[in-house]
Target: Sulfurtransferase
Amino acid sequence: MALRRCWRFSGLVPRLLWRSPIPPGSSIGGRSTSVPSFANTYRCYKSTGVRWFGSQLSHTDVSYEQLKQLLDGQKTVVIDVREPWELREYGFIPGSINVPLGHVITALQLDPDEFREKYDAELPQQTDNIVFICLAGVRSKSALITAASLGYKQVQHYPGGWQEWVERETHQ
Model:
């Protein structure tokens, strides 16, 4: 509800400025009349607990070779965000946890016992290295952004997805 109010307010400010008889960029009493429309939306996002990341998520892609090394080291949690039927039909990366994309936001906020019961694995800690995968890399990027917004620090995704994984595994 607060977010809805923020969106309404952020849309109102530019409209008021648009209809203002004072030309944009002019100053009244030393103050500029033009106000960027995003100024108030930032505060609204901040107050609702949703965080948006710009350049902070720039180095989040994991290559096939890096993923293989991470899996060999067993210090990484691999979460496959495809639907269960996709895993049954196409296959899965050994050791990965299946948490469908639509469940990621609630799953990562579950009690550790509930997560273990529902997904048959340990709930990743916010400091754990997590790699998200999907079929082709689109859903895994979305899951990465969701996890980062929940405070997970070391999140990555495999942009090649299951398609690249199976192709590379069969050619070795």
